[in-house]
Structure formats: C-alpha cells, structure tokens
Design a protein that fits this description.
The protein is α/β, with parallel strands linked by helices and about 350 residues long. About 50% of the residues lie in helices and about 10% in strands. The chain has a six-stranded parallel sheet with strand order 3-2-1-4-5-6, with helices on both faces. The chain is globular, with a radius of gyration of 20 Å. The protein starts with a helix and ends in a 6-residue tail after the last helix.
Length: about 350
C-alpha cells in the first residue's frame, strides 16, 4: 500500500500555479500586494486543480500515542496525562476543540499507540498498532512492520476524510514525551545534532534539557545501523503518532488535499513523508513555527516559511486550526474579490 501511494503523489502543476497567479493579478489590488496570501491561494488552486477551488469540509486529525522513554525522566508530565487529554478532546474541552470550532473544522481522535485501552472513551477511533512506543534508549520504538502499519492508519484517515468531502485536513498529536522521539527523528532526517533540535517540551528545566539531549544522542547512536530510510528511522527512534502523521501527509497528498501541518511533532512526521517522496511538500502548509528551537532549524534547513510565528508549543493541532482560517481567507480572496474588468478600472491607471 505504501509503495502504491508514494507512486500516486505527483508535484503540483506549474500550469495551474500560473493560471491562478493570472487570476490573482486581475483582482482590484496592486500585483502581489497580498503577499503570502496570494502564494497560498495559488497553491491551493494547483493542488485541487479547480478554478475556483471549492471550499470543502475541514478536519483536524489527532493521533494519540504514548512513549515508554518517559521512564528516563525526559518529561515534566507523567504518561497517564495522554489518556486524560484524549478524554478532554472527546468532551470538547481542549484548546484544539475551541480553535477547531472557530475554524469550522471537525476533530477526529485516533488511538494509534496509547499505553492503555480505556473503554469509556466514547468517540475514540481505535486503531492501536502497539501499546506505546518502546523506550528508544533501551530498544526500538517499534518494529518496521508496526511503523508501516501506523503509516497506513494515517493514510487511511486521509482517504476516509476525502471520501467524506474533506478538502483541507490538519495533523494533531497527543503523547506525553513525544518531543523526544520527534527530536530524534529530526536529528537523523535533517540531519542535525541533537542539541540543535531539542527543546524543553512541556517545560523541563536546564538540567532536564541536558539529560534529554543525552538520551536522544545515545538513542540515535544505539540505532544508527538500523536507520536506513525514513520508515526504519521512525521504527527505531520515532513514535506511532509521528508515523501516523507521516501517513496522513502521504494520504492527503495522494488525494490532492490541502494538508495543514501543526507544530514540531507534526513536522517530524511531515519530514519523514517528504523524505519518502519530495513531491509531498507541494501539498503541505506548515501552520506555525513552534517555540521548540528544533522547529526553527527544520524550517531553515528545508527552506520553508510557516504561516504563523506565535511561540505556540501545545500541539494538538492548535496551530493548524488557526492556519486553516488564514488559508480559507486566502481562498475567499481568490473566489470573491472583484476584478479590474468587473469594476471598469484599467490596471496601473
């Protein structure tokens, strides 16, 4: 399935980009005066291959997974918080629920790697691949087969959403300790030193940060020979939600969806997707630059400009929900703004 999906993903068409820019230049404004909004609109037209593009439905998909590496003392919060926050998502009380409502997006929550099966969590999409990623300092996060299964869960989430009329899909995550495997994946796939891509996560102190960097460095060194490609890298030092997000990016691109990537954890999954097929990048809109310092290194190395820079570091898909509204605003400009011809103005007059 993975090989087939990778084969389906093609770069967006320059012809469609140029067609969209021609329309944008005909609108009642100086050429290029709406800056990045025009770039966003043109790329959406090229992704959807519609002129004007239909708005479609919006959905934020949150992948929940635990990490046994928390036993190494790399997080300010215990593993049990993952399940409690998933309950909060399902009850509609988290930040992502508030921001998704503002964006007119629905929220789906997938158990892809939670430590415990919690039967009373009604509304949870149960696609658990493994009961928590392994402690990457002591062994692999998962097997390659489990990594491929997690990627498949993400792809299928995108396919299902597309079949339901979703045109814009966003990634979200929940997993205590998941900045550690995200930094490890970034370190390998960018590549970059662990110290350059590792931050304080949920709020550890300087001593805790130093320890966290050491754990990542040792984990990467331990698994160096195993990491031959993006899938084996996620299997060795990643997380199930990271692999799921990778799959969401791949599946969204294959279905020509607008894929809005959330923060640092989501970017680790998106980076793996881009390394599997560079054309995926054409379909990804990176919503914001996180407070995590590794996120800045990621954007610098990949030459990507995020939509927002608000020092967010919550995850959940919160930055993506905010960016969805900006993307939709760019589309409304494209669809609803008058042209010079319609108002009887000669451009440049």
């Amino acid at each position: 399935m993975l090989a087939q999906v990778l084969e389906e993903i093609r770069p967006v068409s320059d012809e469609w980009i140029n067609k969209a820019r021609g329309h944008l230049d005909s609108l009642t404004k100086p050429r290029g005066s709406l800056g990045a909004l025009e770039d966003i609109a043109a790329r959406v037209v090229a992704i959807r291959e519609e002129d004007p593009p239909a708005m479609g439905e919006k959905c934020v998909v949150i992948f929940a997974g635990d990490h046994d590496v928390v036993s190494e003392g790399i997080s300010a919060y215990p593993q049990e918080v993952t399940g409690l926050m998933v309950q909060n998502f399902l009850n509609g009380g988290a930040a992502i629920n508030v921001l998704a409502r503002c964006a007119g997006a629905r929220v789906s929550v997938i158990d892809i790697g939670m430590k415990h099966d919690i039967p009373e969590l009604k509304g949870l999409i149960r696609k658990n691949v493994k009961r928590a990623a392994g402690n990457i300092l002591r062994g692999p996060a998962m097997s390659r087969e489990e990594a491929e299964a997690a990627i498949r869960v993400g792809m299928e989430a995108a396919f299902s959403a597309s079949a339901d009329g979703v045109a814009m899909i966003a990634s979200g995550d929940m997993g205590i300790g998941n900045t550690t495997p995200s930094s490890a994946v970034m370190s390998v796939l960018l590549p970059a030193g662990a110290a350059h891509v590792t931050g304080t996560g949920t709020g550890i102190d300087a001593k805790g940060l130093s320890h966290k960097i050491k754990v990542i460095e040792e984990a990467v060194q331990r698994h160096r020979e195993e990491m031959k490609d993006p899938v084996s890298t996620m299997a060795a030092v990643g997380g199930l939600e990271i692999a799921g997000i990778c799959g969401l990016c791949l599946g969204g691109a294959a279905r020509r969806m607008v894929v809005v990537v959330d923060g640092f954890i989501s970017s680790a999954g998106a980076l793996a997707a881009m390394r599997l097929n560079p054309a995926v990048k054409d379909y990804l809109f990176f919503s914001h630059r996180s407070f995590e310092k590794g996120h800045r290194i990621f954007f610098e190395k990949e030459g990507i400009r995020p939509i927002l820079d608000l020092d967010l570091r919550l995850g959940e898909g919160t930055g993506a929900a905010l960016a969805m509204q900006i993307i939709e605003n760019a589309l409304m400009i494209y669809r609803d703004m008058a042209t010079f011809q319609e108002v009887g103005i000669t451009p440049g007059a």
